[in-house]
Amino acid sequence: MKETSVLFLLILTSVLCCTKTQAVRLTLSPSRSQFFMRESVTLICEDENRSDGWTVRRNITRGTRKRCEVWGKLNGSTCNMNYLVPYDTGLYWCESMSGSSSSSSSIQLSVSGGSVILQSPVLPVMEGDDVTLSCRAKNPTHNLPAAFYKDGSFIGDETTGNKILNSVKKSDEGLYKCNVKGHGESPSSRISVKERISSTPPSSSTPPPPPPSSLPTISVVVSIFIFLVLLSLILLVLLVRRCFCRKPEAEGGKDGEKEIRDLKTFINQLQPIRSSRGTSTCVLYSARRTDVHQGQIVCRATAAPSSI
Q1: Is residue 185 left, alpha or beta, with left meaning phi > 0 and alpha meaning psi from -120 to 50?
Q2: What are the helix (H) ranges across the chain?
Q3: Backbone φ/ψ region at 275: left (φ over 0), alpha (ψ -120 to 50), beta
Q4: What is the DSSP letter of 151?
């Protein structure tokens, strides 16, 4: 158990050490990747934890993994190159003085023997940033009209010698170069684009979502309201229907009573009628109200007057 704990601590210590050493990065002053012959440049190993303990190594056509002490002047973690020549073109990076495998990302440095260079960012740029490419001639020193190319394809002419790439994205990565008419063409430099990771917290002005407990309450209130409205409509429809159904019955009853009264009046006004030709007299008697539909005509025989 004790041996396991010791092994775990050793592994953890190694991981922490590697994490710290990987914080170093290489920067250039002036910050560009292309230089004219006989210019000077300073390469700086920037470490978040300490300023010393690093050296600069390079791979060029005349040798690989050569330390700054061989081809430059080392001062702490800074390497100075005072007289650049074309064969200094190559890959440069920072590496620990202890000889461990920890190192920074590498930078391609180009030294031109010609009269035109392209000034571009030496480190990867962030996605969404604006990038300026400057085409510079050795003589005269002021900017001249230049043509720009990306991966060998023409991307435009600029009268000022400066081309701005607005809001760069991953598709803008590639090899760029420029050409000044009558002076020549620059070497190619690669532009790398890093994805921007947003660490901005959400805006406080955005109202927070309602708590889950309030949602069922609102739903219940809305359901009760809808139920009451539907119940009111149903009762209203039933009430209107009932009124319309009873009205004809009521009107029908009044009309029947009126007919009965008219019939009784007519019957009461009738007088016994004697037939002038018959031998009998028929008298129409009115019936009672309850027998109005069964009115009777009663005929009584009378003796005919005798002729003397």
Answers
A1: beta
A2: 2-21, 68-71, 214-269
A3: beta
A4: T
Q: Is the dihedral of CA 94, 100, 101, 102 positive or negative?
A: negative
Cβ contact 39:46 at 8 Å = no
| 47 CA to centre of own chain | 39
Output phi, psi for 47, to 5 deg.
-120, 130
User: Which pair of tokens denotes residue 249?
Assistant: 């019955």
Contact 220, 197 (CB under 8 A): no
Mean pLDDT, the chain, integer: 77
Tokens 């005919």 label which residue?
A: 304
Place of tokens 């018959």: 278
Please write the tens of the pLDDT for every residue from 150-186.
999 999 999 999 999 999 999 999 999 999 999 999 9
Instruction: Identify whether the C-beta of residue 185 lies closer than 8 Å to the C-beta of residue 115.
Output: no
Q: Are 107 and 33 in contact (CB under 8 A)?
A: yes
3-state percent helix, strand, coil for the chain, nearest multiple of 5: 30, 30, 40
Residue whose token pair is 């391609």: 108
The full length of the chain comes to 308
